[in-house]
Design goal:
Layout: H1 2-32, E1 38-42, H2 53-61, E2 65-69, H3 76-88, E3 94-99, H4 101-109, E4 115-121, H5 132-136, E5 155-156, H6 160-167, H7 173-182, E6 186-187, E7 205-210, H8 218-227, E8 231-235, H9 241-244, H10 246-257
Parallel strand pairs: 1-2, 1-3, 3-4, 4-7, 7-8
Antiparallel strand pairs: 5-6
Helix pairs in contact: 2-10, 3-4, 6-7
Keywords: Hydrolase, Signal
Signal peptide: 1-27
Domain AB hydrolase-1: 39-251
């Protein structure tokens, strides 16, 4: 009887060992290889795609296929069209990422069938029928930012004297000067255009709150993400947290690619 019990316990121990090994191997495989390899990055207003260089390098070194959209910034419809062109060229499921105004763009463009998940980086996230400006008006602008002027052609500009402190305080003065010089001309009508179909209602969404943001009040970001049941990650950084904290931002994108 004792011999039979010993054999039983040995057999049970062997089964448990095999189960543990299988679970461990599966977990390692999940961590080693993303389920989604494609990432499309959409920039916001007062910037262009070159700001994504550091984030691009982190992601590509981890094996991701990264595409950066150059938004024309002429309207919401035009920016969505540019994003859809990039999505059309992807060879499979894609994580669509938007910063700032780019959040409004991916909220509309995220309905593309290849989009599997959305990531908002200090970004706007309107609902159906809502405009970007509605959310920007829910909290007063930071002193470092102020009211953005609109010229006679309907183009809104960031005050050059406030750009570093108000937009990109945690990167170098030289980097901020390059960002200012390379930004696109943003047509203010984009802020007034309502979203027609919010993709976050149907797709998994992840949102990064930049806790030192002076361009979009962090409380606005929190309120939008909470309303949409977006998974929130708070990262200490300015509005361009993807430049100052590219590894931490990349980790959120990687998480989105594995779920």
């Amino acid at each position: 009887m004792k011999t039979q019990l010993n054999r039983y316990f040995m057999f049970a121990a062997l089964i448990l060992s095999l189960l543990f090994t299988t679970v461990n191997v599966n977990a390692q495989a999940k961590n080693a290889a993303p389920q989604i390899k494609n990432v499309v990055l959409v920039h916001g207003a007062f910037a262009d795609g070159s700001g994504y260089r550091a984030l691009y390098e982190v992601l590509t070194k981890k094996g991701y296929n990264v595409t950066i959209v150059q938004n024309p910034l002429s309207s919401l419809e035009d920016d969505v069209a540019a994003t859809n062109l990039a999505l059309d060229k992807q060879d499979g499921p894609t994580v669509l990422v938007g910063h700032s105004w780019g959040g409004t763009v991916i909220t509309e463009a995220g309905n593309h069938p290849k989009v599997a998940a959305l990531v908002y980086i200090a970004a706007l996230q309107p609902d159906n029928g809502e405009t970007t400006v509605q959310w920007l008006q829910t909290a007063p602008p930071a002193p470092e930012n102020g009211v953005l002027p609109v010229d006679e052609k309907g183009i809104v500009y960031y005050d050059k004297a406030k750009y570093h402190a108000g937009f990109a305080a945690d990167i170098s003065k030289e980097q901020a000067e390059f960002m200012y010089a390379s930004q696109g001309a943003f047509h203010a009508k984009g802020f007034l255009t309502p979203v027609t179909k919010a993709a976050w209602r149907d797709k998994p969404s992840y949102g990064i709150v930049a806790t030192e943001d002076k361009s979009i009040n962090p409380d606005i970001e929190r309120a939008m993400y909470k309303r949409s049941n977006t998974k929130i990650t708070e990262i200490k950084g300015s509005h361009v947290v993807f430049m100052s904290q590219p590894v931490k931002v990349a980790n959120v994108i990687i998480e989105a690619s594995r779920n």
